Amino acid sequence: QVQLVESGGGLVQPGGSLRLSCAASGFTFRNYYMSWVRQAPGKGPEWVSVINLGGDSTRYADSVKGRFSISRDDAKNTLYLQMNSLKPEDTALYYCARDVAPWYSVDRRYDYRGQGTQVTVSS
Predict the structure, then answer these.
(1) Contacts with 14 (C-beta within 8 Å, 6 or more apart), sequence order
(2) Residue 93 CA, distance from chain mean position
(3) Termini Cα distance of the chain
(4) Integer CA distances (angstroms), 31 to 44, 66, 72, in order
(5) Where are the strands (E) in the chain, listed by range?
(6) 3-state DSSP call for residue 123?
(7) pLDDT tens for residues 56-102?
(8) Are 86 and 66 in contact (CB under 8 A)?
């Protein structure tokens, strides 16, 4: 069965960095777009970033553009999110998702997601 398992979250000070990982199994990872999505307490899910097949094209939400970087290692079936210059408003549960929307679609769609890893940005 499809499994997505995130790791790498934690508590970090404003301005700090974290690298999230998402280990995928149960499907042919290289054949799918993959997204990172986050959900802050009391708010709805917010799409963060998507990466295409092969990893040579990426898209980001305006709120993280220039600070976050998505990447993938198809040999390891792993998705990454490098987060730099973190702000308190980045505090959220971050999860990876198998993205099934067309590449240029504004609204992303997911058929599987992981349980998430908590990121807290606070001094």
Answers:
(1) 86, 87, 88, 121, 122, 123
(2) 10
(3) 40
(4) 28, 27, 12
(5) 3-7, 10-12, 18-25, 33-39, 45-51, 58-60, 68-73, 78-83, 92-99, 110-113, 117-121
(6) coil
(7) 999 999 999 999 999 999 999 999 999 999 999 999 999 999 999 99
(8) no
Kindly compute the dihedral angle of the four CA atoms of residues 38, 27, 25, 6, in this order, to the nearest 10 degrees: 0
Q: Is 84 helix (H, G, I), strand (E, B) or coil?
A: coil
State the DSSP code for 42.
T
Question: Within 10 A of 38 (CB to CB), how many other CB atoms are there?
Answer: 23
For residues 104 and 79, the answer to whether their CB atoms sit within 8 Å is no
| Token pair of 55 as six digits | 């990893």
pLDDT tens-digit series, residues 28-47: 999 999 999 999 999 999 99
